[in-house]
Amino acid sequence: MLSGMSIQKQRKLIIFSFITVPLLLLLTFAYYPALELVRLSFTDWDGISADKTYIGWANYKEVFSNPEIFGVFRNNVAYFVVGIVQNIAAIYFAVVLNGKLKGKNLFRLLLFLPYILNGVAVAFLFGYVYDTTNGSLNLLLGQLGFDQLAETSWLGQSQLVDYSLASISFWRFMGFNMVIYLAALQSIPSDLYEAASIDGANGWQKFIYITLPNIYKIIELNLFLTVTGALEVFDLPFVLTKGGPAGASETFVLKIVETAFQFNNYGLASAMSVVLLLFVIIVLSIQRYLLKGKGE
Question: Which PROSITE patterns does the entry mention (predicted)?
Fold first, then answer.
């Protein structure tokens, strides 16, 4: 077929094919489900019956007026706070491991290794770490002489459970962020640091005036991943706490899943999903506005 066509037509056909196939896949598996989600958010569909009665904005009013739904967002704050600390630690380790450190490749591997592990497996692992009576964390604290802390129920206290779960994300994803920062650091010309050394700049001044401006876009990228990750947490509370104690660790995504599959209210769950999407867009737009023009 192609042999009878001119080179120009073959090129256009190939370009058209490479554009059309991904576009069709995107429309089929991304945009169409998103539009269907929006449509269902205006119905009272239970996920089973064929009846999908239009109820207008009732689901959205329920989301914003019911504190048991929208108020769940406060449990996601811990993941955002720990995510910021995680990025700071990742930058620190990236700077250290980008220098002349003996065995730095081994340290890079050890820090990145948790990211490779399966999320559910990590959750089960830390279930044993945080166990109140036989957990390794309380055992270690007891051996170090912190007897009161050794009796702490890390997943059973509403004040601690979110930060305990978020610290698991810190352990798992810090190495991933470090690798991204490390790649950015290695793209900075060494001539800049040599010139700064000649001018008498110390390590802190090099970091502030050379390193940070050159990795600013990567910091912005990782902040994007941190914000979206904090808003979309699901696996850790689902496996370890089921949203307990008394809903203290229930995240918004966990609430969506519960609304859809436990209470069979797919219309309300769809509205919650749309609200989550809009919330992510708003937060990231604010982030882009605050960081606009910096690092350029």
Answer: ABC_TM1
Which of 264, 260, 283, 284 lies closest to 273, judged by CA?
A: 260
Helix axes 266-290, 58-65, angle to 10 degrees: 60
pLDDT, tens only, 202-232: 888 999 999 998 998 899 889 888 988 998 8
pTM for the full predicted model: 0.86
- Closest by CA to 171, choosing from 213, 141, 231, 130, is 130
Tens digit of each residue's pLDDT (9 = 90 or more) over 81-113: 999 999 999 999 999 998 888 888 899 999 999
CB distance 211 to 95 below 8 Å = yes
Of 249, 212, 9, 254, residue with least CA distance to 95 = 212
Percent helix, strand and coil across the chain, each to the nearest 5: 75, 0, 25
Site of tokens 């109820």: 55
